[in-house]
């Protein structure tokens, strides 16, 4: 007599469990869709956009490492080349304080470190945040930090010169994103030897993304910080000026972290004229692909998370 009723109760419990599970799956999928919209196609594999894992470290970097070891035959002429000032990079997911991350990506639980074939030369980390404001909609934020370190050698020249060339390339590509509107570019002081902020709007089916790319060079290291936000499902677009201010503050923190990791470097003014620190094991990073490219919304390449081409809000 009671068995049909018990079966009905079990069925109701099972249905309730499925209903509870579906929203969380929908939220997870929505987050992945938004991350894909915020990053460039080249970074999609690393960001888990093409899989159910949701992990940006799903693919390994196969491109040539920026610190590819050159032939020792050039050792004689290398004696006349000034060695690189910075010989290591900080752990990318630790370069920003909890307070800064709370301001930029308040709903992010942790950073996702990108895969790298040479962590001494190229690293990167990304965070994403989706804040649900109920019937008003939601606010999405995506942040990526990538660092590329160059080494001196006779074939490619001095590390800081290579870094400067790569810096110029990153700035140019960040300001040349297809489909970008209201693009503005301006120099930034107090962030290493040179820094530039590029900002623009990018319309996608999910909404209009307010993109900020800040590129900074400190000696032989180039930092590329990408930060964008969008109001979804009826929520208003974030204030671009506020996003830019937050991104610029964050990049200064990253530059300071590079200096701290090398103990004694100058994160402010250039020290290229002063005696440089001994070079690291690696020889010289080729400016081909980089960590900054892996998550930077500029058209440049990216290696920090996946392959090559900077993460940009295009796709």
Automatic annotation (TrEMBL):
Superkingdom classification of source: Bacteria
Region (Disordered): 1-30, 49-79, 261-315
Biased composition (Basic and acidic residues): 1-23
Originating organism: Streptomyces nodosus
Organism lineage string: Bacteria, Bacillati, Actinomycetota, Actinomycetes, Kitasatosporales
Signal peptide as annotated in the record: none
Low complexity: bias regions: 268-315
Annotated protein name in UniProt: Membrane protein
Regions annotated as coiled coil: none
Cited InterPro entries: DUF3558
């Amino acid at each position: 007599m009671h068995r049909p009723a018990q079966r009905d109760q079990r069925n109701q419990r099972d249905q309730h469990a499925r209903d509870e599970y579906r929203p969380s799956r929908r939220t997870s999928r929505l987050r992945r869709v938004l991350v894909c919209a915020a990053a460039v196609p080249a970074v999609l594999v690393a960001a888990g956009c093409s899989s159910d894992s949701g992990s940006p470290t799903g693919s390994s970097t196969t491109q040539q490492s920026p610190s590819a070891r050159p032939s020792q035959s050039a050792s004689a002429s290398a004696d006349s080349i000034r060695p690189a000032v910075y010989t290591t990079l900080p752990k990318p997911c630790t370069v920003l304080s909890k307070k800064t991350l709370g301001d930029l990506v308040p709903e992010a639980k942790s950073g996702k470190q990108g895969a790298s074939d040479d962590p001494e030369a190229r690293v990167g980390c990304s965070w994403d945040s989706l804040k649900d404001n109920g019937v008003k909609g939601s606010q999405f934020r995506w942040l990526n930090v990538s660092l590329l370190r160059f080494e001196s050698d006779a074939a490619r020249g001095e590390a800081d010169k290579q870094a400067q060339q790569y810096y110029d390339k990153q700035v140019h590509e960040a300001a040349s994103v297809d489909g970008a509107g209201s693009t503005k570019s301006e120099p930034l002081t107090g962030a290493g030897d040179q820094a530039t902020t590029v900002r623009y709007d990018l319309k996608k089916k999910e909404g209009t993304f307010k993109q900020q790319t800040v590129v900074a060079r400190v000696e032989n290291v180039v930092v590329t910080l990408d930060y964008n936000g969008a109001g979804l499902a009826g929520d208003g677009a974030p204030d671009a000026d506020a996003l830019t201010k937050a991104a610029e503050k964050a990049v200064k923190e990253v530059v300071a972290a590079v200096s701290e990791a090398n103990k004694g470097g100058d994160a402010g003014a250039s020290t290229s004229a002063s005696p440089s620190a001994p070079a690291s094991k690696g020889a010289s990073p080729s400016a081909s692909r980089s960590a900054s490219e892996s998550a930077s919304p500029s058209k440049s390449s990216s290696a920090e998370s996946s392959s090559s081409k900077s993460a940009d809000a295009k796709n």
